[in-house]
Amino acid sequence: MWLDGAEVAAEVRALRPDYAALLIVAEGLRPGPSDQASDAFLTEAEDRARKHMGGARPEELPQVAEWREAFRAFGAKPQRTRPSVEALLRRVETGLPRIDRITDAYNAVSIACLLPVGGEDLARYAGSARLVRATGDEDFDTTADGQPAVEHPEPGEVVWRDDQGVTCRRWNWRQCVRTRITHSTTTAMFVLDGLAALGIDGLHAAETELTESLARLSPGATFTSRLLGP
């Protein structure tokens, strides 16, 4: 089972002993462009996010402030490279971009439940997912000026990786091109990131929301999950 090989390295746990990751594998998804259903998920989530913030800035929320601390712990500057949940919350007032059915669903859970959520095309993965501190020579495929490019993480940076290279830089800041969700993705892996302010119960609540949303978009889809707890 693919989930059995996933792990969080000891050097990452040393940075944040309270960190937990909940990984979900979804099979039988029905991908495609954003539609009325996925738009409705995001619209409702935007309303919930506004209520969470209550006029405050995203970084004033405990769930977001903790991620800023986690980024600083490995040398990142969160005001320059923001945790993914903060970046999304900053776009709530003007409305989040509608990207595709699957991405819309997990972005909605991120802002509604106040945690970073990432989605990857599992068919494009090479081996298991591991959260590690980078050596600095790993490949991270991205784009620059609209063209394919390869970058490398900073030594010590917290990254998700597989056997081929980095799949997400700076814990949950930016995903690579190779494993991104597309209109042909039918099997996906999702990472739900939690720290103490969210708690394990918050992770499981977000898991329930995500799987229910995906099941509504893709009747017949099946889900398995694994908690990599503190």
Word description of this protein:
The chain is an alpha+beta fold and 230 residues long. Helices cover 32% and strands 23% of the residues. It has six helices and eleven strands. The chain has helices spanning 10-15, 36-53, 62-73, 84-89, 101-113, 199-217; strands at 7-8, 20-27, 117-121, 130-133, 140-144, 147-151, 158-161, 166-169, 174-175, 187-194, 222-228. It has a five-stranded mixed beta sheet. β7 and β8 form a beta hairpin. α2 packs parallel to α5 and α5 (101-113) packs antiparallel against α6. The chain is globular, with a radius of gyration of 16 Å. The mean pLDDT is 96.
User: Termini, distance in Å?
Assistant: 22 Å
Sheet with the most strands?
5 strands, mixed
- Unreliable stretches covering 5 or more consecutive residues: none
Number of strand segments: 11
Shape: globular
Strand/helix succession: EHEHHHHEEEEEEEEHE
Structural class: alpha+beta
Query: What Rg is obtained from the alpha carbons, in whole angstroms?
Result: 16 Å
What is the strand content? 15-25%
- Biggest sheet, strands in spatial order? 1-4-7-8-9
In helices, the fraction of residues equals 25-40%
Number of helices: 6
The average pLDDT score comes to 96
Can you summarize this structure?
With 230 residues, the chain is of the alpha+beta class. Helices cover 32% and strands 23% of the residues.
